[in-house]
Every structure is written in C-alpha cells, then in structure tokens.
C-alpha cells in the first residue's frame, strides 16, 4: 500500500474541515500530512483504497449514491481503521453516522466525491 492515496485523503479531509467546521478547528484536524501520525497515514491510505475500489467495482455507479450514502461509506471504513489501530477506542472515535456532527458528515461526503472524481 502506498501513501499517495492517503495523502489525497488527508488533503480532502483538511479542505472539508476548513469548509464545514464551525469556528476554528482543532490543530490536529488540519495538521499537514508530514505531521500526521503513522497510524493515521496508514488508515487514510486504506480508506482511500477502499473508496477507490468501491467506485471501480461499481463501474462508476457510485455517482448515483446520495451524499449521505457516500459519507456513510467513508465513515464506516474509517471506523474499521480505528478498531484496527486501537483495541479499546473512545466511543466518540467510533460513533455511528447519525451521531456524527454535520460538519464531519459533509467532510466525509466531500472526501468520497474527491476520490470518486479521481478514478
């Protein structure tokens, strides 16, 4: 697994946070790739690969999904990575879609669409 996709994921995350987060985001939310922990780089690359594979496997039919469906896919893939890297994560790290703040839902949908457009 290369980290090129992870960097793309991270850049889309930062763009989404800057666009949707109410107020000033936490520094860790917008930290550049170089300052991102190794586990998070690996997770970002894995989720990028999962979204890309999903888009490819459907022959691009993901364009028919709603923004909520796209965002939920990203969120669920990310939760899987959290469980992979943390044996007992805080509940807020693995919150279900309906419990996420609106800014995070919009950011996750933006990430999916950014990856989808690059396939």
Automatic annotation (TrEMBL):
Domain of life of the native organism: Bacteria
Name recorded for this polypeptide: Uncharacterized protein
Organism in which the protein naturally occurs: Amycolatopsis tucumanensis
Lineage start: Bacteria, Bacillati, Actinomycetota, Actinomycetes, Pseudonocardiales
């Amino acid at each position: 697994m290369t980290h090129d996709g992870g960097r793309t994921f991270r850049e889309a995350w930062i763009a989404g946070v800057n666009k949707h987060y109410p107020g000033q985001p936490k520094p860790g939310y917008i930290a550049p790739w170089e300052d991102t922990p190794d586990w998070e780089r690996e997770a970002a690359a894995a989720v990028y690969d999962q979204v890309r594979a999903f888009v490819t496997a459907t022959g691009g039919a993901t364009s028919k999904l709603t923004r909520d469906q796209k965002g939920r896919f990203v969120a669920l893939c990310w939760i899987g990575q959290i469980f992979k890297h943390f044996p007992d994560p805080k509940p807020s790290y693995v919150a279900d879609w309906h419990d996420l703040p609106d800014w995070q839902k919009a950011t996750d949908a933006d990430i999916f669409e950014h990856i989808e457009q690059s396939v």
